[in-house]
Amino acid sequence: MADNVGNGDRATTSSVRCPSHYRRRKTKRGRDPREDIDLISSLPDEILQVILSFISTKLAITTSVLSRRWRHVWCDTPSLSFSDNCNLDPSSVDKILSRYTPRKMMSFQLCVRSLKYDHPYMYSWIKFAMCRNVENLWLEHRLHDIPGFFYNNSSVKQLYVKSKHACVNPRCSVSWTSLKILTLDGCNLILC
């Protein structure tokens, strides 16, 4: 009975030992650098840019701190979205637009409900989107007058303008040759 408990003789201790394949230490092999990249980062830039277009521009820019791979991905997103709910700063918007590289923009959303933003800033942001051949333009603003360049654009397919005080009064010919959907919410429409 004493032999079964293990009194130091080899016969009993060897029966209690772990099999040799459990005792081996796993040796570290050299890591494959591809294992360090997550699956999302391995996607092509075009797909990452589409993914980033579904979130706010401010949030998309924060992805640039993830890694070198993500540093400039946001610069080519097909859509930009700015809202004064996110502490919109005119100088930071100008800086973002200066780093934006695509010549074609799918959508541009500008939601400025407060009066603290100067009209020239907003006019330049709208003009920027129109110069990039924006297809879907969404504006929520407090502009009282819409500038003349706004009425001459051949790329806009969908236009949404929401304003309690805006006066849509084209003093020039309107040339929206691609426009399919026009929504004016709360605007004063004056046709002469």
From TrEMBL:
F-box domain span: 37-85
InterPro entries named in the record: F-box-like_dom_sf (IPR036047), F-box_AtFBL13-like (IPR053781), F-box_dom (IPR001810), FBL60-like (IPR055294)
CDD domains recorded: F-box_AtFBL13-like
Basic residues: compositionally biased ranges: 20-29
Region (Disordered): 1-30
Protein name listed in UniProt: F-box protein At2g39415
Source lineage: Eukaryota, Viridiplantae, Streptophyta, Embryophyta, Tracheophyta
